[in-house]
Amino acid sequence: MTRETVPLPEGFGVEFDADTKFVGADVLFGGSPPRLLRLNAAGVRALGELRSGPVGSIASGRLARRLTDTGLAHPRPPVPDRPAEATVVIPVRDRAAALDRCLAALGDSYPVIVVDDGSTDDLVGALRPYGSRVTHVRRESNGGAAAARNTGVGAARGDYVAFLDSDDIWLPGKLATQIDGMRKNGWPASCTAYYLLRPGRPEIVSPLYQTGALGLEDMVWGCFVSPGSTLMFERGVFDDIGAFDTGLPRLEDWDWLLRYARKHALGFLAAPLARIDASPGKGAARMEAMLAYLWTKHHRDLGARDRRHFAAGLDLQRAASHYYCGNMLPSLAALLKSFLRSPTLNAALSVVIHNRLARR
Fold first, then answer.
1. pLDDT tens digit string along 259-282?
2. Residue extents of the structural domains in the chain
3. Are the CB atoms for 61 and 194 separated by under 8 Å?
4. CA–CA separation, 119 vs 138, rounded Å?
5. Helix, strand and coil in the chain, % to nearest 5
6. 172 Rama sector, left if φ>0, alpha if ψ -120 to 50, beta otherwise
7. How far is Cα 266 from Cα 191, in angstroms, rounded to an integer?
8. What is the pTM of this model?
9. What mean pLDDT value characterizes the chain?
């Protein structure tokens, strides 16, 4: 008579070992000693549950126990039920007026660090009404968004760090809702949907994903989750993934998410919890250099399918950049190239196209 596997308790998650390989949808290889684990249909469903969140059923609990007992994965205990400590980081340069609107919408539930990236306007005066709730960290010279965010994270305290751009605003309850989703699902980091504001046109909700976990196969398509104003992460995750790349004047958040997604799932909440200004991009020549840099940095670490989709995603960004600059022929050429690389329209590509068209 065989002893029934005792399931891992509800609320526990699993983190797959770095050497565990997914040979197919129903086969895993790894552990100690190495072994091949083949799953039946129920096991595949339980695996899907574990990859998107914590144990929530007896079947996923038993599979979680088996994975952890064999070394294919490691247990991730639930976060204690206590008030979370989070810090909001806002990088800003010469946007004193916009920053006042941004801070007024935040309330006073969480501490805020404003990183002054070499501003020349009266930022100190704009911050004075907020008193000790807002910590002002000044960089004497402008280093760009990557350097400013790195400075802000270095000064942050508590369990979580959340980013907010100075020209965007959060809806009430954004942080509490996001923290609750991360704790319930075991996500080390998450983003949310948002309202995209377009002057003279109706706002839209973007991106069009459902609540759940996003992986590297999603991130290769583009930085459509607007992490500058929706990203929140556990403080330790930043130390694990590393700082933003200061060699990138833009797209530093896409670079960071690509690095993050190679190790962890990114949680996504479909409820729009921010309002984000749809501002056009920079010059096409400058963007081209950044796209080439991203390709060189990441393509060797991607499988064949993800590499092809990454190239298509870069082409979409290239098309958008030319469009903003009024270069219609190069924009159409880049868009066509993207479709030729991946002619089958999937969910991730639909999200990217939706975002790009909405910014017209």
1. 999 999 999 999 999 999 876 555
2. 13-76, 86-277, 284-358
3. no
4. 9
5. 45, 20, 35
6. beta
7. 7
8. 0.74
9. 87
CA distance 45 to 359: 38
State both tokens at 7.
């399931």
Task: Supply 72's token pair.
Answer: 């294919």
Structure confidence by residue, pLDDT tens digits, 295-320 = 999 999 999 999 999 999 999 889 88
Asked if residue 285 lies in contact with residue 324, where contact means CB atoms within 8 angstroms, the answer is no
Q: Which alpha helices (H) appear in the chain, and where do they start and end?
A: 41-52, 58-69, 96-104, 123-127, 144-155, 174-185, 216-219, 227-230, 235-241, 252-261, 284-298, 304-324, 328-341, 347-358
The per-residue pLDDT for range 64-92, each reduced to its tens digit, is 888 988 889 988 866 555 556 899 999 99
119-133 as b/e: b if 16+ CB within 10 A: beeebeebbeebeee
**3-state class of 87 per DSSP?**
strand
Q: Which of helix, strand or coil describes residue 208?
A: coil
Distance CA 196, CA 359 (A): 8
CATH superfamily label, 86-277: Spore Coat Polysaccharide Biosynthesis Protein SpsA; Chain A (3.90.550.10)
Supply angle C-alpha 149, 153, 155, rounded to 5.
120
